[in-house]
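From the thread on structure requests for the teaching lab: each student submitted one protein with a one-line request. Submission from student K.M.:

"Model Reverse transcriptase domain-containing protein from Eleusine coracana subsp. coracana, tokens only."
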Amino acid sequence: MYLSRGVRVGIHSPWISHLLFADDSIIFSEASQRGADRLREILEIYHRGSGQLVNRDKSVVFFSKNSTDVMKQEVLELLQIPNEALAEKYLGLPTALGRSTKDAFEYMPTRIKGLIGSWSGKEASCTGCEVLIKSQAQAVPTYPMSCFLIPLSTCNKMKSVISNYWWGSSADSKRMHWIHWDLLTGPKMKGGMGFRDLPMFNNAMLGKQGWRLMEKPQSLCARTLKGRYYHDGDFMSAARKKHASHVWRAILSGREVLEQGLIRRLGDGQETNIWNDRWISNQPLRKPFTQGLENQLQWVSELLTPSRQWNEEIIKDIFCEFDAEAILSTPINNAGQDFWAWEEERHRHYSVRSAYKMLERKRRHQQGSPSSSSDEIW
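Reply posted by the TA:
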């Protein structure tokens, strides 16, 4: 904490003095008499310059854990703010999470149960039930899932409530579930109903956060997280630290989705590893089948000629015939550098929709071969 700069989460992270969102302002300051006097002076200057007065009755002060009771009381009296608290939720998301996140998200199954309880007394066709589930019930966890990794037990509770409603169950009676829910979450063209698999959708949403860190490395969020967790590397190689926050753990969960769909588009080849990165377009694994040796080349740039064309002699000498053909047919951007692209979209940018489809397709492939009867239309 530094009085004139604010706060930072690590020595490699930028200083943050304030955050603004809509009509709310969060100001970071030192929990001391000096910090309180400085903040009061800033608010007074703002009042004289704009004519607007901050409503202290609607303002709150949130202290860190290492603040003493004497320090808290002194700051509250100097700022003339009577409330010492941080709302349990802000913009619909919990502001502080403990070691366990189960209780923090219990409101979602409760809210879905309330919605479905209001529908149960009304007769609806099969199509009507489908529309209600997809447009309202499944929309409840969408926003929290974009920031946090929702516990599996919470997802199962939401799934149970939705599944019971689909099969016509009520508080007084429970009907038979004729088909496993995993089959109903498949696409309609494969015999499902297109309902969301909530844990899978959660991971697809979190992948978007990781993509933003890669696409906009100069944003405040990216610079803050980079300084805290991977200041000496890049996002894709960042390790999970022992005391990482819930948000960072969630982003790392979404990174696992990115690892399945990202591919390197080649420019100069200096930042693409031959054996570890996914970069070969016309190859199932996007990596060479040929096993790399310690004395062999490591970077794609070493497979190029000075004019940025494939060196056929070296490639055919190192790789098997299958890999060599795939590498020679991989395009090269002669005017740029290597970059990550999302392979599931033609515009190369990540989308939750394509990521979810990719995860669902791989799940079906793991459950059975493409020729199995589970993939046939009803």
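TA comment: The beta strands are 18-21, 24-27, 60-61, 83-84, 89-90, 93-94, 262-265, 339-342. Residues 33-50 form the longest helix (18 residues).
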